[in-house]
Design brief:
CATH topology: TIM Barrel
Strand content: 5-15%
CATH class: Alpha Beta
Shape: globular
CATH architecture: Alpha-Beta Barrel
Structural class: alpha/beta
Number of strands: 8
Oligomer: single chain
Order of helices and strands: EHEHHEHEHEHEHHEHEH
Number of helices: 10
Number of domains: 1
Distance between the termini: 9 Å
Length: 271
């Protein structure tokens, strides 16, 4: 793999019952450059960003292991989407930015949901845009980038849709962090869609999908054209790629991770 390309490992590719420190060490043993931390809608993971002592402890783990946590997957906005009338949505955003600054996270992958558990409306879309501007202003003041994830719902399931908000906000601190698996499920030509983000894609999630299936697949079990998508992303200057897959719960963790890492690295070797 080209030395300029950096490859990250999603936290959920590892068993949930091991410590952050052990996850960082496993990330390094398996040949990855950084770990992407998950701040999902569960109380345990969402609680991380509301506990300064937890952030300080994780920052210490990063320093002592020498393995960075460069990115955060902030899927907790599924529970508190930016388009809903709930002050917790921005509070979660602000605390996530503070956490990122403490830990040394460069990019927060922002869930492109105006709403999730309720119907999307003109009002939720409008509120999403308003709250997004507040979120970007706060992140910019802290020096943390926000990159939209392309989601599994129609509101923002493509790079092109994400770019409408990137263009409207017009800040160097807001870009796109697309999930190529979700994009593949959304459009006939994933590469053409990724091209619409030229100059604004901070990093990319490498994830396997099938029609109607968005998670819990190993690389090679779905239909994503990784060769073509990675070639396109490299051609527009993207050099950070995170491997998003989920631990299966029974295979030896290192064996499981290395098997998927080998698949991805073989793709890069061909491009």
């Amino acid at each position: 793999m080209d030395h300029k390309v950096r490859l990250g490992l999603y936290e959920k590719a590892m068993p949930g019952d091991i410590s952050i420190r052990d996850k960082l060490l496993l990330t390094r043993r398996c040949g990855f450059d950084w770990m992407e931390i998950s701040i999902d809608e569960t109380p345990e993971k969402m609680g991380r960003v509301f506990a300064p002592a937890t952030a300080a402890a994780i920052a210490r783990d990063v320093r002592e292991t020498g393995v960075p946590i460069d990115t955060m997957c902030l899927s907790g906005h599924r529970r508190f989407p930016l388009g809903e009338e709930d002050p917790m949505n921005l509070e979660l955003m602000y605390r996530a930015v503070d956490f990122a600054r403490t830990v040394g996270i460069r990019i927060i992958q922002l869930a492109g949901y105006d709403t999730y558990y309720h119907p999307s409306t003109e009002e939720t879309a409008s509120r999403f845009g308003e709250n997004l501007r507040r979120a970007v202003a706060y992140a910019a003041a802290k020096g943390v980038c926000l990159g939209f994830e392309t989601m599994e719902t129609p509101f923002m399931n493509t790079t092109e849709k994400a770019m409408r908000y990137v263009t409207a906000v017009d800040s160097p601190w807001l870009g796109v962090y697309p999930d190529i698996g979700n994009v593949t499920n959304a459009v006939p030509d994933a590469c053409a869609d990724l091209e619409t983000g030229r100059g604004h894609i901070f990093a990319a999630h490498l994830k396997e999908t099938k029609p109607g299936i968005f998670r819990d697949l190993e690389f090679g079990q779905g239909r994503v054209d990784f060769d073509a998508c990675i070639r396109t992303l490299l051609s527009i200057g993207v050099t950070m790629f995170n491997c998003e897959f989920w631990y299966d719960g029974h295979t030896d963790p290192e064996t499981y991770i290395r098997r998927n890492a080998d698949y991805v690295k073989a793709v890069f070797a061909r491009t």
